[in-house]
């Protein structure tokens, strides 16, 4: 079984644009996990500052779950 190692970074001056930009990337991470058979990682979305987010697989998040972290 392999793991998904992609990380997406989103930069946007408007919160709504960030949210719209983030959803498809989170969905891509979920789809990649299904394709690789990864069942040990969930997705962690980290909010670094207004308009700046990262989304990445995480062993700290249960499989099938998405968690947000305010940094």
Output mean pLDDT.
Answer: 77
Please tell me what the overall shape is.
Answer: globular
What structural class do you assign from the helix and strand content?
Answer: alpha+beta
Run of helices and strands: EHEEE
Radius of gyration: 12 Å
Q: Number of helix segments?
A: 1
Which residue ranges are poorly predicted, with pLDDT under 50 across at least 5 consecutive positions?
none
Helix content: 25-40%
Distance between the termini: 31 Å
Q: Count the domains.
A: 1
How many strands, what sense, and barrel or not for the largest sheet?
A: 4 strands, mixed
Number of strands: 4
Strand order of the largest sheet: 1-3-2-4
Q: In percent terms, what proportion of residues is strand? A: 25-35%
Describe the structure.
By secondary structure, the protein is α+β, with helices and mostly antiparallel strands. The chain has one domain. The protein is built from 1 helix and 4 strands; from the N terminus they run E-H-E-E-E. A 4-stranded mixed beta sheet has the order 1-3-2-4, with helices on one face. A hairpin with a 2-residue loop joins strand 2 (42-49) and strand 3 (52-58). The longest helix is centred in the middle third of the chain and has 22 residues, at 15-36. It is globular and about 35 Å long. The model has no long low-confidence stretch (mean pLDDT 77).
């Amino acid at each position: 079984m392999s793991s998904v190692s992609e990380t997406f970074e989103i930069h946007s001056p408007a919160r709504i644009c960030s949210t719209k930009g983030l959803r498809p990337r989170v969905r891509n991470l979920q789809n990649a996990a299904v394709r690789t058979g990864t069942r040990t990682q969930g997705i962690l979305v980290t909010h670094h500052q207004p308009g700046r987010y990262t989304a990445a697989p995480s062993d700290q998040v249960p499989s099938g779950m998405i968690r947000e972290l305010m940094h």
